Structure formats: C-alpha cells, structure tokens
Amino acid sequence: MKKIEGHLHLVRSVAGLNGKGRMTPLGDGRTIWDDGTVIKLIPDGWGDDNFLAESALKVMSENGIEKAVLLQGSLNGYQNYYSYQAVKKYPNKFVAAFSVDPFADTAMEIVRRHVEDLGFRAIKFEISQGGGLHGYHSPFRLDTNPDIGKIFHFISDYPGFVVTTDYGDSSQYSYEPEVIANLAARYPKLDFVVCHLSFPNANHLDRLENALTQWKDFTNIYTDISAIQDIEGETEFPFPRCQKDVALAKKILGSKRIIWGTDSPWSSTFNSYHDLSTWLEATDIFTTEELEDVLYNNAEKVYFKKENLDAMLESKDPSFKNK
After folding, report:
1. How many CB atoms lie within 10 A of CB 72?
2. Which among 14, 157, 236, 321 is most buried, taking Cβ atoms within 10 Å?
C-alpha cells in the first residue's frame, strides 16, 4: 500500500530552542539541553549529529514510503533552508513547510522571503509550551495576536496554503483547539492540520471528543496522528491506546481528514520506524479504502497540491546550491 510520511523532520544541524534553553549535539544521536536534560534525538544508524535527506530517503525506501512532508519544530531547530534544498534536489520525494518566530523584528520579512522568493506554501506553528514558542514567550493566541494576524492576512492571498499547528497538551496554556475552528472559519481557503491528534489520552477520550467535535463541520481542518505513541507512552505494537484515539477520530472526522505520520527522527527512538509505519495495517480501524486515504491520499491532497509544488520548484533563489 502506498504511503506518504505526513510528519518528518530533517536535521541539517541541531539548533533546538525551547523552554529548556538551547540544544547541543553530543554525538551518537544524543543531545543536551542547556538545563542539563539529555535526550536521544536520532536513532542509531540514522546519523550522529544530523538526519539528512539522503538518510531519510534510505529509511523511506526500506519501509515502502513514497514521499514525505518536511516540517519544522523547536526540538530540532528550524531547518527551513535545508528543507528547501531537499525539495529542490528531490522534487518527487519531498514537500516542505517553513517556520518563523512571529515575534521576531523581521518576522514578516522572513515570511515574505519564504513564500515569495522560495515558494513555500505551508507554514508550521510550533506553539506548545512544552516544546515550542510558549516555552519562551508570554501567552498568546493564534487567532487574536496582531503579529500572527499579519502572517495570516499575508498567506490568505494564496488559496490552498497549509497551516500546520502543534499546540501541546491540555496541561499547557498553549492548548487551544477552539482557535483552529475560529481560524478555519475566518480563512476558508486555507487548509489547517493539527499535529499529534490534539495530544490524546485514552483515559480521557471525552476531552479529545470535545476538540474533534469543534472541527467536525470544517472540511478544511485535518489532523495528523504522528507521535501519538510517544504521547500515550506506548511501546507495545500495535499500540492499543492509540487505536482508541484514532477510532474516535475516525468516528467524528471520518477517514478523509486523518493524515498518518511519525514525527521522526525523535519518535523512532521510542518505537522502531517499521512499527510506526505499519501499525495501522495491523488494526481493523479502517477499511482498505479508508486506509489508502489515511496513509497516502489525504497527505497528497493537502500538502502535495500541484500549484503548491510548482511554486517551490519554479522559485529561483540566487543563494541556492543544489547540494
């Protein structure tokens, strides 16, 4: 069965930044935050201090993955330009989103460069308190902050533009599922993808149901199911708690608004990439036709729009070198 990895991170150079400070590579896939926290960021054999496009393609080939969506996050540090280079070098394999700190003095210059010069047609807002912008900024909302409003007003001129958001779990003040519904209503020509199935907890399915129900009537809201094994703390294949979460998502949103992904490389340090890429096929949540949507068709529809791909492939940045 064809598959698109809907949530993948390349790491040209480790540049993590969140509430724990900066991240420094230690080798052997290990890194350390400024507060002393050490994590295994990259699985063995994928890279010591990086996870490059060629390594990703090898992992994808070994696991039958046709294409991948490259996203940015504070854990690895924004890899915007390297993701751009990867798409230009491997145009049949990757599509990419960029990220920006909306509170930076030159935020709108950065947005304009990535959209107008580099041809990006997707943006990732990593706003979680645990791992993103809320860890080092005062609380804000995506639907009312004027700095972020400028960004939305700008990208609304590009129908089909994708806004991907990680807002953390319900214990964090960054958790705001209602904001996604507000934005989807305000910008009906944009597509919205909520990462990690709104951080589910199989012991609290009513909370997940509340979030998903708010999005039910908005056909431009999707969710990816990446990293839910990490969130649920599951290492037992085929992840029974995650099955409950995804079954509820199907019941409320349907199979055409769920995008499979893994959030690798980090997620593949907890469970093997093979398990993360095959677990849905080991369940009876979806019919064969529905599984084709979740594993491939939905990501193809949202992220791999022809006009969006053409915008980046036709971009001409004088500083770009295809290497």
Report:
1. 24
2. 14
Report the CATH number of the 4-313 domain.
Answer: 3.20.20.140
Per-domain boundaries in the chain: 4-313
Report the predicted TM-score, pTM, of the whole model to 2 decimal places.
0.97
- Distance spanning both ends of the chain, measured CA to CA: 31
Query: What string of H, E and C letters represents the secondary structure of 77-137?
Result: CCCHHHHHHHHHHCCCCEEECECCCCCCCCHHHHHHHHHHHCCCCEEEEECCCCCCHHHCC
- Asked if omega into 238 is within 30° of 0 (cis), the reply is yes
Are 282 and 237 within 8 A, CB to CB?
Answer: yes
What's the longest Cα–Cα distance across the chain? Answer: 52
Looking at residues 242-257, what average pLDDT do you find?
98
Beta partners for residue 73, in sequence order: none
Q: Is the pLDDT of residue 283 over 70?
A: yes
CA atoms of 30 and 14, how far apart (whole Å): 10
Q: Which residues of 243-256 are buried (b: 16+ CB within 10 A; e: fewer)?
A: bbbbebbbeebebe
Q: If pLDDT is split at 50, 70 and 90, which confidence band does 320 have? A: low
pLDDT tens, position by position, 90-147: 999 999 999 999 999 999 999 999 999 999 999 999 999 999 999 999 999 999 999 9
pLDDT at 316 (0 to 100): 83
Q: Comparing C-alpha atoms, which of 119, 135, 142 is closest to residue 192?
A: 142
Is there a contact between 76 and 9 (Cβ–Cβ < 8 Å)? Answer: yes
d(CA 201, CA 199): 7
Confidence of residue 321 (pLDDT cuts 50, 70, 90): low
